[in-house]
Amino acid sequence: MSKDKSLSRPSSATQVDAFLRKLAAAPVPAASGRGRLMFAMDATASREATWSEAARIQEQMFAETAQLGGLDVQLVYYRGLDECRASRWLCDTASLLAAMRKVDCAAGRTQIGRVLGHAVEQTGKTRLNALVFVGDCMEEDLDRLLERAGQLGLLGVPVFLFHEGRDEVAAAAFARIAKLSNGACCRFDASSPQQLRALLGAVAVYAAGGRKALADYGRRQGGIVLQLTHQMSGV
């Protein structure tokens, strides 16, 4: 992924406040008519199987949004001790698949704060409809994560977190991030790829068509997708 950009460390609270004031005074560029989705994944060593599965089924995101105007996706991932990168914006499944196939998972700690901070920064440059994160644990200062989740909520960017496994610390953190950003959190079973496929499709539909499109998709899909639609509707 030669065009990947290494993500900076989260800004201080003062820097974030200054950024938000600047953002409030400057109009966001006009929408292009396509949904814009940030697709973030934990690429530490424990995630190799899920990374491979997500690469295989990510085409669902583009397929579900074809009739809603299309979708642009930016892949964001972290791995190792201090690596967190973002791809260019991708507009088709072949490009995203090629980008994901170039990434090897490597042992390390979570860097969710950098992902959330990157989403805040990107929103200042162009419209961002949603952030989806797939991971299994959380090893960071929760208050910093919640601060950034709240910023995304104020900016109108919901975070959808898909939790693999049974780590209760991660489960509690993901649920609070989702609530503060006006997003949703859902646990999925890695042995059931169709669950992740349906969830990725649901977020893509939301990014391209909004809440009504997500509600329609949830009624068609049923099952695990309804957990997202219920959370988004406040049920």
Task: Describe the protein's architecture and organization.
Strand 3 and strand 4 form a beta hairpin. The protein is built from 9 helices and 7 strands, in the order E-H-E-H-H-E-E-H-H-E-H-E-H-E-H-H. The protein has helices spanning 13-25, 48-57, 59-65, 93-101, 112-123, 142-154, 168-180, 193-221, 225-232, and strands at residues 5-6, 35-42, 71-79, 83-90, 130-135, 159-164, 184-188. A 7-stranded mixed beta sheet has the order 1-4-3-2-5-6-7, with helices on both faces. It has a single domain (37-232), classed as von Willebrand factor, type A domain (Rossmann fold, 3-Layer(aba) Sandwich).
Task: Describe the protein's topology.
Elements: E1 5-6, H1 13-25, E2 35-42, H2 48-57, H3 59-65, E3 71-79, E4 83-90, H4 93-101, H5 112-123, E5 130-135, H6 142-154, E6 159-164, H7 168-180, E7 184-188, H8 193-221, H9 225-232
Parallel strand pairs: 2-3, 2-5, 5-6, 6-7
Antiparallel strand pairs: 1-4, 3-4
Q: How do the SSEs run, as a string of H and E?
A: EHEHHEEHHEHEHEHH
CATH superfamily: von Willebrand factor, type A domain
Count of DSSP H/I helices = 9
Structural class comes to alpha/beta
CATH topological fold name:
Rossmann fold
The order of strands across the largest sheet is: 1-4-3-2-5-6-7
Please, what is the average pLDDT? 86
> The biggest beta sheet, please?
7 strands, mixed
Number of beta strands: 7
Q: Which residues sit in consecutive blocks of at least 5 with pLDDT less than 50?
A: 19-32
Q: What share of residues is helical? A: 40-55%
- Please write the CATH class name: Alpha Beta
What is the assembly state of the chains in this entry? single chain
CATH architecture: 3-Layer(aba) Sandwich
Summed up, the domain count is 1
Strand-residue proportion = 15-25%
**Rg for CA atoms:** 16 Å
What general form does the structure show? Answer: globular
Terminus-to-terminus distance: 41 Å
